Protein 1
Amino acid sequence: MSQKFQEIIDSERPVLIDFFATWCQPCKVQSSVLNTVKENIGENARIIKVDVDQYPALASQYGVRGVPTLAIFKKGEILWKESGVHDVNTLTQLLKQYT
């Protein structure tokens, strides 16, 4: 996963990573928000979900201490990272800012 993950975040397009856990209720809320964000931004950015229980080393590498944690990468650089549930407008604006 880490090689594939690196290829994904090295993209010219911004990539929103959703670090989540299947047992996390707020993560389920965030997931439905991200579906709408995807509709809003189309092909201008990617949204990828990473299960912290399946990939604990990846979560640790990026300092994920709580779920959900969202991070935006572009060209391998982390541009923004925050924990908690975020709304559609905030995330859409953030992604548009980095396209």
Protein 2
Amino acid sequence: MEEQLTYEQAWNELAAISKEIENETISVDELAAKVKRASELIAFCQGRLKATETEVGKIIDGMENQKEG
């Protein structure tokens, strides 16, 4: 997976692959590669969402600790 890939880029590429599959514009020869790439993009997006959730949780915890202190 590319180092510079953003969540938005991954999501857009995933949407494009999905549309190609739905519209049946992918050849049988390309299908396996597209499904594999979609799987990689899904894993990337899930990882980014989890990392963001963790970071936001830390920020909120820090803000709550400041209020109490």
